[in-house]
Amino acid sequence: MKQLVYISTSRSEVPSLTEVESILSASRRNNARDGLTGLLIVGGRRFLQALEGPEAQLSAAYARIKRDPRHFALVELSRKPITKASFPDWAMGYEAGRGDLAELVYQLTSMIDEPSLQAQLRGFAQLHSKAA
Ligand SMILES: Cc1cc2nc3c(=O)[nH]c(=O)nc-3n(C[C@H](O)[C@H](O)[C@H](O)COP(=O)(O)O)c2cc1C
Q1: Are 81 and 18 in contact (CB under 8 A)?
Q2: Which one, of 110, 95, 104, 93, lies nearest residue 46 by Cα?
């Protein structure tokens, strides 16, 4: 099993609810089919996504995601083997940068027992909760 974390920038200035909903519905459908789980956080114009699962399915999903015109400038923050999924129950969990993003993400990531992933997600949320 592998885990991938990347950030990207939305093509539209702020992704609309419709856009995010369409991303999420395709993600949940495909990820459930492919045995992938993960979390998508939207902060301002940035996406941060953690995606995990069997290597072949993960690579195929990431190849599709990279080609998606709704975002650009993807930067891989980490890609590594894992023994246990951090988000086993979420075909794609989601949080938007409304309200206190940092607080929400803090709670959402409390079950993660991998310090570097937890720190990455929390750091991103903290940065964007100030900008919002
Ligand atoms: C920020 C972002 C995250 C995405 N995450 C996923 C994902 O986790 N799984 C997925 O299948 N597609 C994801 N997508 C959508 C894919 O780019 C692509 O549109 C979709 O997989 C096509 O699926 P379909 O052929 O079933 O319509 C994401 C797109 C964006 C912009």
Answers
A1: no
A2: 95
User: Which of 65, 67, 94 to mutate for ligand 1's pocket (most ligand atoms within 8 Å of CB)?
Assistant: 65
Look up the CATH number of the domain holding residue 45: 3.30.70.100
Closest CA to 10 of 39, 49, 38: 49
Which residues form the domain of 8? Answer: 2-98
13 lies in some domain: yes
Which pLDDT score is estimated for 98? 57
Q: Which atom of ligand 1 is nearest to the CA of 66?
A: 17
Would you say residue 80 lies in a domain? yes
Is the CB–ligand 1 distance for residue 48 below 6 Å? no
Tens digits of residue pLDDT in 82-108 = 999 988 888 887 777 556 677 777 877
For residue 41, pLDDT over 70 is answered with yes
Give a yes or no: residue 115 inside a domain. Answer: no
What pLDDT shows up at residue 132?
47
Nearest CA to ligand 1 atom 22: 26
**pTM, rounded to two decimals:** 0.86
Q: Specify the residue for token string 């990347």.
A: 6
Residue nearest to atom 19 of ligand 1 (CA): 68
